[in-house]
Amino acid sequence: MPKIGMLEIRKEQLIQATLVCVEKYGVADTTIIQIAQQAGLSSGIISHYFGGKMGLLYETMRDLMRELQISISQKNKADPQLTPHRAIEIIIECNFDPNTDSARMKVWLSFWSMSMHQDDLNRLQKINDSRLHSNLLFHFKQLLPEKQAKNAARGLAALIDGLWLHGSLRSEEFDHYQARFIAKQFLNKLLEEQ
Q1: Which of 28, 76, 81, 190 is most exposed, with minimal Cβ within 10 Å?
Q2: pTM to 2 decimals?
């Protein structure tokens, strides 16, 4: 009989191993055997917990999305003087967290690419896009007329995705601070024009 709590521990080990393997080998060349070896577990456990490699990739993406939402939520709760402008800055800061390593960036990039062809990943991508857009729109509506708020939310969401994509494809290390600066500059320009 498995020990209580081992399921979550094993899943976390496999998610972390997936990040390492995708960074090392890329999504297409990563195998469940490599992931299992990296985690120090048997490969059968991946099929048992996730149904295979695609299920594990799906859970890895859900985990990364959950990390982002928790980070945003914690920063919002920690700010007693939270304004809509500051809430948007927090979304930017969390999307370009300097602690985000290249493994996570590569998984995100692979996920975006694969979501065009995999229904489960496409649904997850739509959830992610919708969450970013609706969070931005909620705060922009408190600062701008509705039509401008919609355009601002769509524009900033596209800029965030574009900066990530551009940064992921470059050979040099991604500059999170520069990405934050660019996105905040865009935000401030939008609000100055009002």
Answers
A1: 81
A2: 0.88
